[in-house]
Amino acid sequence: MGGVAASRLGLWMFDLVVVQEMQDSVPESDRGVVGSVQNSLQSCMDLLGYVMGMIVSDPKDFGVLILASFLSVSCAALLYSLHTYRI
């Protein structure tokens, strides 16, 4: 339970950083478009997670979902790090 609470705290802090980055680096005229695309991609990825949970519904195959989640988060971190390095 403590791990879940800690991960939620980390998620909220990361969300604050994303909002700050968007306000600092995206021109004011484009913020609505960028924010809308970000929200739609986030919703699509949430939906993909739920669909994967329905497809891989056998509890003994739960490791597949864990691996897919870990790889997705690692890929996102790598892409964000590359983007930050280029800037």
Describe, in plain words, how this protein is organized in 3D.
It is a single chain. This protein has 3 helices and no strands. The chain is mainly α. The radius of gyration is 16 Å and the shape is elongated. The model has no long low-confidence stretch (mean pLDDT 88).
List the topology elements.
Blueprint: H1 2-25, H2 31-55, H3 62-86
Spans of at least 5 consecutive residues whose pLDDT stays below 50 are none
N to C succession of SSEs: HHH
Beta content: under 5%
Query: Quick one: biggest sheet?
Result: none
Give me the oligomer status: single chain
* Principal-axis shape: elongated
C-alpha Rg, in Å? 16 Å
Number of helices: 3
Mean pLDDT: 88
What class, by secondary structure content?
A: mainly alpha
Number-wise, the strands total 0
Helix content, binned percent: over 70%
Q: Gap between N and C termini, in Å?
A: 38 Å
